[in-house]
Structures are given as structure tokens and as C-alpha cells.
Design goal:
Length: about 425
């Protein structure tokens, strides 16, 4: 699903292939930009297999049901606004898909374990490998062969960072004929002046001293859980005071429960905490917020607190209400810990706009605006190069996808100079891979 301008229009386009003719969908992970159009695919005729890891299969209903609810609410709001204004919008006043469409898609999901070979047909098999990106994320290895000819294809999915808490390190490969790799941060590394956890403690302590709140726009899947993990460590080691900390996202709360259901997918450190009886997703002062009434009550609290709320790019959800209360307070801090796409409210704030518009109001940005890059679930440029460096023989084709056009081309230029046969496909472009 496209989530940023100018690509939102594409969500409404028909798929460039007949969905009913597709046999299987191999899902790398449950993030919306990878899974968000599944109900639309089913709605338009797909009835094949959706293959994912067990953790992704458990996360998928949470992600898709939330998306459907938001779309239904958005469609109703647009219809009401357009009737009031006496005009029509660019898209029909109907949701892209509904909760009923999600319910039709979910029975198609089947699970696969990491490292297990699954035969899709006699000439095609697949293996899922841990991508180290989020819980249950996968890189997909495909082996196609017929008449004595074969081709090994590796789809990177989203490549995670090495040495991160909670999830394991990304899988690496030594050989492939074709590699399709993401390039989200292909032009830069995540450079924080100090360790991300130490920087988090510094920002919180300075904000508490000033008497403000720390407001963190938070992605419900992975980022919220990683932040809770770090905040718990900081509280237990007394590096920050025991503050009231609110996870104001019903979806993030559901996702956290999935993390608790699947400690076997976590890295050694987090798994060891579970085995010792200590839950890495709970700490003194943490309160999980469910109802709207509880969310509103946060803004009546006197004194400093930490507020984690969605959405991560400030495009909707409860974070906008907390921004209204804090963005014009010089003593408060707005802390970004994830990617902010061009054109989003989060990007405007991060780019130090003097004024932003929220709920029809123009608000001066007087709060401190901070960013911690090290919490990203994506590998930076060095990580992507490290991942590629494990191939002993360079593949015949390397395709760079999943990045801003200038970023992907910048990384492609660098790799081409190093001898890689690299391509950045245009939207809708097709390539035929010949078996050799």
C-alpha cells in the first residue's frame, strides 16, 4: 500500500495483472507498505495461497483490520465534508476495502517456518529466511528449474540492522543468480552522535528538567515494542526517572501481545529475559491505553510524562491530539524515531516548519524537535553493502527497489562502479529472467 504523496493515487488503480490468475502470494512481513493491499487483491479476484511466517500471520489481522477501520472512517468523513462543501473529491467516497474484505482474505494465509523448503509446483520452491527487520520478517529464496536449467532468486524484503535488540541479525547468502534488494536508506547511514539508548535517556532527562512532556510518534509494529524495551532498561537502571509512560495505541498494544506470544523469534538477549521471568515489554510506570477517554485524560496530567502514540508519521491517529497539546510548548519535546516520508506532517515538523496545520488549526512549532535515527528497523547504506558483500559470486542481476528514486539511483551508481550489474526498475517495468 502506498502511504505517501504523490503515490497515493496508485492504491486505487487496478492491479497490472489479473489477480485471479495468481497462484500464491509470498509475504515478507506485515508492515502496511508490504501487506496493505492484500484485501484489495482478494476483492479483485485473488483466491490463491498467502504464505508467511507464523508471527506475520498473527500480526496480519491486526494490521489489516486497523487499516480497514481507518479507511471506512475516512470515507465517511470525506462524504460528510463533501456534502457540506457541495463538491466531489478525486476518489469515490467509499473505502478502498472494508473489514468484511479483510475477513475474506485471512483464511487464505498459511504459515511457513524459517529454513523450511516449500514446493509451490514441481519447477518452483521457496525458503523463508529471517530478515532481522521486524518480528517474523523474511527474506525469500526462490529456486526455479526445468529441463536441467535453474535460477536462484533472492528477495531481500526489508533488511534489518545488525546487533539490534529484540530481533535477530539479518540472514546472508553466498550465491544467487538474481537479487532484488530494498534501498530505503541506500544513500546514508543512521548516524547518531551517541548510542541510541543513551541519546534517548539524555532527551528524556533534559525534557523532564524543563518540565515538559516527551511526545513520540510511534509505529505500532516493532518500533513501539523496541522503545518499550529501551525505556524499561533505562528505568530499571535508574538512568531516567520512573515517569508515567503511556502507550496510546490499541494497535500497538495488540502487537505487543503478539511479541509476547512469540519469544522464539526474538534475539538471545530478549529471549533470555523471558526465560528469567522478566517481561521485556513491561516496566514500572508503563500504562497501555485502550479507550479514547483514557487517551484524553493524558492531557490533563500535571508534570512530565512520556507519550508514545500512532501514527508514526503523524498522518492520523491519536498522536495528532497529543501534538495539539504539546507542539507549541517550548518545554516539551517531539521525538522522532522512524522514517518520515515526504509530504507527511511528521516530515514538516522534522524539517523545522515554523507552523503546522492540525485539525484545521495553524499551530506554532515551539517544542524542541529531536530525532534518533538508530532505532530504524532498516539497514543503512553500510548495512546494505555488508549484506551484498556476503555473495561470493556476484549475481547476474541486482535490482534495487523500495526507495526514493534518487536514493536508489545513487546506490546503483556506487554499485555499478564496483562492478555490479545493477538496475533500478521503473514502476510497471517487467523483466524476464532466463534459466541457464
Amino acid at each position: 500500500m502506498y502511504q505517501e504523496r504523490p503515490y497515493l493515487e496508485r492504491n486505487w488503480d487496478l492491479f497490472p495483472f489479473p489477480p485471479g490468475e495468481v497462484d500464491a502470494l509470498l509475504l515478507t512481513h506485515a508492515h502496511m507498505d508490504h501487506s496493505g493491499l492484500i484485501p484489495k487483491l482478494v476483492k479483485e479476484g485473488f483466491s490463491g495461497r498467502i504464505i508467511a511466517t507464523a508471527a506475520s500471520a498473527e500480526l496480519l489481522p491486526i494490521v489489516l483490520m486497523d487499516a480497514a477501520r481507518l479507511q471506512e472512517e475516512d470515507a465517511a468523513f470525506k462524504k460528510k465534508r463533501h456534502q457540506k462543501e457541495g463538491r466531489k473529491g478525486a476518489h469515490p467516497e467509499v473505502p478502498l476495502y472494508t473489514e468484511a474484505d479483510v475477513e475474506k482474505a485471512l483464511p487464505l494465509v498459511e504459515t511457513i517456518a524459517y529454513g523450511k523448503t516449500l514446493s509451490l509446483e514441481p519447477s518452483l520452491s521457496v525458503v523463508f529466511h529471517d530478515a532481522g527487520h521486524i518480528l517474523g520478517s523474511a527474506m525469500i529464496e526462490m529456486l526455479a528449474g526445468e529441463a536441467g536449467k535453474t535460477a536462484r532468486l533472492i528477495f531481500s524484503g526489508d533488511v534489518g540492522q545488525w546487533n539490534k535488540p529484540l530481533v535477530r541479525d539479518p540472514s546472508v547468502f553466498e550465491a544467487a543468480d538474481v537479487v532484488v534488494m530494498e534501498s530505503t536508506y541506500g544513500d546514508r547511514d543512521h548516524r547518531d552522535p551517541i548510542d541510541p539508548q543513551a541519546l534517548l535517556a539524555k532527551i528524556i532527562n533534559e525534557t523532564v528538567e524543563a518540565g515538559g512532556n516527551v511526545v513520540i510518534p510511534t509505529f505500532a509494529l516493532e518500533r513501539a515494542q523496541e522503545l518499550i524495551y529501551h525505556l524499561g532498561r533505562l528505568v530499571r537502571t535508574k538512568r531516567i526517572p520512573q515517569l508515567m509512560t503511556f502507550l496510546d495505541s490499541p494497535m500497538a498494544t495488540e502487537v505487543t501481545e503478539v511479541f509476547e506470544h512469540h519469544p522464539e523469534f526474538l534475539d538471545e538477549e530478549a529471549f533470555a529475559l523471558f526465560k528469567s521471568g522478566q517481561n521485556p515489554f513491561r516496566f514500572p510506570g508503563l500504562k497501555l491505553i485502550h479507550s479514547i477517554e483514557e487517551s484524553k485524560a493524558i492531557n490533563r496530567i500535571k508534570g512530565s510524562c512520556i507519550i508514545l502514540a500512532g501514527s508514526g508519521m503523524c498522518t492520523g491517529g491519536r498522536i495528532k491530539h497529543h501534538l495539539v497539546q504539546n507542539i507549541s510548548r517550548p518545554e516539551s519535546t517531539i521525538l522522532f524515531v522512524g522514517y518520515q516520508a515526504r509530504g507527511t506532517l511528521g516530515r514538516q515538523i522534522l524539517d523545522h516548519a515554523a507552523e503546522v496545520r492540525i485539525f484545521g488549526r495553524n499551530l506554532s512549532v515551539k517544542a524542541h524537535v529531536e530525532e534518533i535515527q538508530g532505532f530504524s528497523a532498516h539497514a543503512g547504506q553500510s548495512g546494505l553493502l555488508e549484506w551484498l558483500g556476503h555473495f561470493r559470486l556476484r549475481p547476474s542481476y541486482l535490482f534495487l527497489t523500495h526507495g526514493d528514486k534518487d536514493v536508489s539511483h545513487g546506490l546503483a551508481d556506487r554499485l555499478a562502479k564496483e562492478g555490479w550489474n545493477v538496475h533500478v526498475p521503473d514502476y510497471g517495468e517487467e523483466w524476464e529472467i532466463k534459466l541457464v
